[in-house]
Amino acid sequence: MITTTPEIQTQDESNEHMLALFQSYLELQDKSSNTIRAYLYAVRQFLKLYSFADHNSLMLYKCYLIEHYKPQTVNLRIHAMNCYMEFLHKPSSRVLMVRLQQKPFVENVISAADYEHLKNCLLRDGKLLYYFAVRIMATTGMRVSEPILLQAQDVYRGHIDIHSKGNRLRRIYIPKTVREPCILWLDNIGRTQGYVFLNRFGNRITTTGIRDQLKQAAIHYGLDPSVVYPHSFRHLFAKNFIERCDDIAMLSDILGHESIETTRIYLHRSSTEQQRIFNQVVNW
């Protein structure tokens, strides 16, 4: 009886060995843990679909991605595979990413009223960890992966330095309106050093934990879950900042965007605002 199991196992072992080497390669390039995780996922998916990594198979993978995923996801995985090809010393096998058309509006941004309601409810119910997590994201423009890095020393100092994409140093300032009450809270719970946001087990909270807790809070407080998510508060910060300070270059630096063109979307109104204004204006 002929079996191919040993060969499959050998191929799987070979793939895992290459993935381990690729991970080391990414770590040497100072890629973030989230980026490494995403790249390894893409390569692992590719290796399950195709037995050989070359330009032709990468083109087939690109077609597969376009058929099954949104453009942003397609480009993330193509970027991961292009990096993998460089790791394999096959730079000529890389493929182009798909072109993204930027929307002239920002979708699913929490309104000022809903933000105030969420803050007040969290404060009223004594959920101070998520109260300050929400406030910090909404007043600094932090990505969801960044509040979990915040330490008590950063709050006392008034800023945190983070290495963003491309290993660029980004300084994030914590405004006085949030910093002072947060210091009082930290003093009260005796957390004068170490990570600010810890779960009930004393471990640092995760990005998944933040997302899940916000979703539960939205449902509990009668808010639309589609606008109560971490990146929504980053959008809120950007919109509020550009309305009060028209320095888009400064906003781009604060948000850590690689290109100022990415930041320009905040010059547009949200889709909800556009619809409201449209209904007010068009009465014929």
Topology:
Blueprint: H1 5-28, H2 33-49, H3 55-68, H4 71-87, H5 112-124, H6 128-140, H7 152-157, E1 159-163, E2 169-173, H8 176-189, H9 207-220, H10 230-244, H11 248-255, H12 260-263, H13 271-281
Antiparallel strand pairs: 1-2
Helix pairs in contact: 1-2, 2-4, 3-4, 5-6, 6-10
Question: What can you see in these coordinates?
Answer:
The protein is mostly helical and 284 residues long. The protein has 13 helices and two strands. A two-stranded antiparallel ribbon has the order 1-2. It has two domains: 5-93, DNA polymerase, domain 1, CATH 1.10.150; 112-281, Intergrase catalytic core (hpI Integrase, Chain A), CATH 1.10.443.10. The radius of gyration is 22 Å and the shape is globular. A hairpin with a 5-residue loop joins strand 1 and strand 2. Helix 1 packs antiparallel against helix 2. Residues 1-5 have low confidence and may be disordered. The longest helix is centred in the first third of the chain and has 24 residues, at 5-28. It has helices spanning 5-28, 33-49, 55-68, 71-87, 112-124, 128-140, 152-157, 176-189, 207-220, 230-244, 248-255, 260-263, 271-281, and strands at residues 159-163, 169-173.
Keywords:
284 residues, mainly alpha, DNA polymerase, domain 1, hpI Integrase, Chain A, 2 domains, two-stranded antiparallel ribbon, 13 helices, globular, disordered N terminus
